[in-house]
Design a protein that fits this description.
Elements lengths: L1 H36 L6 E8 L5 E9 L9 E5 L14 H7 L8
Antiparallel strand pairs: 1-2, 2-3
Length: 108
């Protein structure tokens, strides 16, 4: 009889341990899904700005963290007190822009 009771005690401890493991795994899953729902894994943008002694100011919004298939924000604002006399040119390396334009999977 004592052997049977020992076996039941072992089973109860095993079931409690398994129950705790399932609860921890479920908690981790809920935290992960909740973080995703709140946007923790989405696109992050960074901002940087500089002002020259001449008054010229440039502000850039760029993708700091991006995910494939999602549009990313990028903007460049250039300003100067009194404005500009004519059009201005803003240049960016093509390699940087191509890095942001990923619409497929590699390798195919």
């Amino acid at each position: 009889m004592a052997d049977v009771l020992d076996g039941i005690g072992i089973e109860i401890r095993r079931e409690r341990r398994d129950h705790r493991r399932r609860a921890v795994a479920l908690g981790i899953l809920v935290a992960f899904v909740g973080a995703g729902a709140l946007g923790a894994f989405g696109v992050r943008e960074g901002r940087v700005g500089r002002r020259a002694p001449s008054g010229l100011r440039i502000a850039v919004t760029y993708p700091q963290i991006a995910r494939p298939g999602l549009a990313v924000p990028i903007s460049v604002q250039v300003s100067k007190p009194g404005g500009f006399d004519g059009p201005i040119d803003v240049a960016m390396p093509t390699a940087y822009l191509q890095m942001l334009d990923e619409n497929g999977f590699h390798p195919d």
